Amino acid sequence: MSFKKNLLAGLVVLGAMGLHVQAHAAATIINTSGTVALGVNDLGNLNTSVGSVAVNSSLTGLAYKFPDGSFRDATSPGCFCEGWGVSVNGSVSGYANVTTGSGGLTLSSFSSTGNSATSIVTLTSLPGLQITQAYSEANNAPGALFKDVVTITNNTGATVNDLKFVRVMDWDVPLTEFSEYVTIKGVGSTTLLERSHDNGFNTADPLGGDAAINGATVDVDFTDVGPVDHGAYFRFNFGTLADGESYTFTTFYGATGNEASALAAIGAEGIELYSLGQSNGGEVTGEPATFIFGFSGVGGTPVEPDPNDVPEPASLALLGVALAGLAVSRRRRVV
């Protein structure tokens, strides 16, 4: 009997025993408005064929529904280069990326619903260090963003030092995949950020290399660099984590139909550090789609104003006085 037949026979037996068997734990989740899809693998990185909806790639990573009704992906065409990694003590790491490689992680569990997914893993050589990633729709911009609440928990029995975390992705923005404009904002004000640049092809291993494609993008804010095939790389250093302690922050992925609505979503969620991916020709207005990748809880301050913030009456009164004074000043200059 062939291996495939043996496998099928085994699945039949397990099914008869009432056990649920999943050949590859992964899921494509879609927000309730039906506009943004994420393909989440069991280790928590993106780009999967399970439930894929993208028409411009064999996998779905981060996809947006275009006006013609099709989902087009911005992280999986050409290279499945999206991933994350964690390291401690300068010597132990685990990371997950479909193309550049995965290693050092042990899966504890993976579960999903139509619009959420949760991955729990541990470091293989330090199993007391657990990383939980809980994907769901963002609280204040659910039509534009998914949030990934990342919790790193230390149950190793000892303090760990030099806790680093990497998230890296290659933008392949439709309709001009491999020729996009990339923006990064919030670098200078994000105190826990150790390294940033535009190379989405880097390993997700925090102990690996991190050379930039464009040297001018290293550790600085930049706007509309391109057009070229590049992405975004961020490495954080969360310092020391005592035994029994956890550190939690949030990663965001999403897309909107233009740049203005993307910035509004970023402001609504209080995102401290972000990258935008836009097509060649769409870098001014962000149309037909602006793709979003960002973070909060990483030692920064919100980069964009929250469009839902309404000035209090006292503030409005002061604003009125200031405007009245400005009008008088202008009349005086005219006279």
Q: What are the SSEs and their pairings?
A:
Layout: H1 3-16, E1 26-30, E2 36-41, E3 62-65, E4 71-73, E5 82-88, E6 92-97, E7 105-112, E8 117-123, E9 126-137, E10 145-154, E11 160-170, E12 180-185, E13 193-197, E14 222-228, E15 231-241, E16 246-256, H2 259-268, E17 273-279, E18 290-296, H3 313-334
Antiparallel strand pairs: 1-2, 2-3, 3-4, 5-6, 5-11, 7-8, 8-9, 9-10, 10-16, 11-15, 12-14, 12-17, 13-15, 16-18, 17-18
The residue ranges in which pLDDT falls below 50 over 5 or more consecutive positions are: 1-23, 314-335
In total, the number of domains comes to 1
Describe the sheet with the most strands.
Answer: 9 strands, antiparallel
Quote the average pLDDT: 88
Radius of gyration: 22 Å
How many β-strands, per DSSP? 18
- CATH overall fold name: Beta-galactosidase, Chain A, domain 5
State the strand order across the main sheet.
7-8-9-10-16-18-17-12-14
In short:
With 335 residues, the chain is mostly beta strands.
How is this structure best described in words?
With 335 residues, this protein is mainly β. It has one domain: Beta-galactosidase, Chain A, domain 5. 14% of the residues lie in helices and 40% in strands. The chain contains 3 helices and 18 strands. The strands form 3 sheets. It has a 9-stranded antiparallel sheet with strand order 7-8-9-10-16-18-17-12-14. Strands 6-5-11-15-13 form a 5-stranded antiparallel sheet, with no helix packed on it. The protein has a 4-stranded antiparallel sheet with strand order 1-2-3-4, with no helix packed on it. The protein is globular, with a radius of gyration of 22 Å. The N and C termini lie far apart (99 Å).
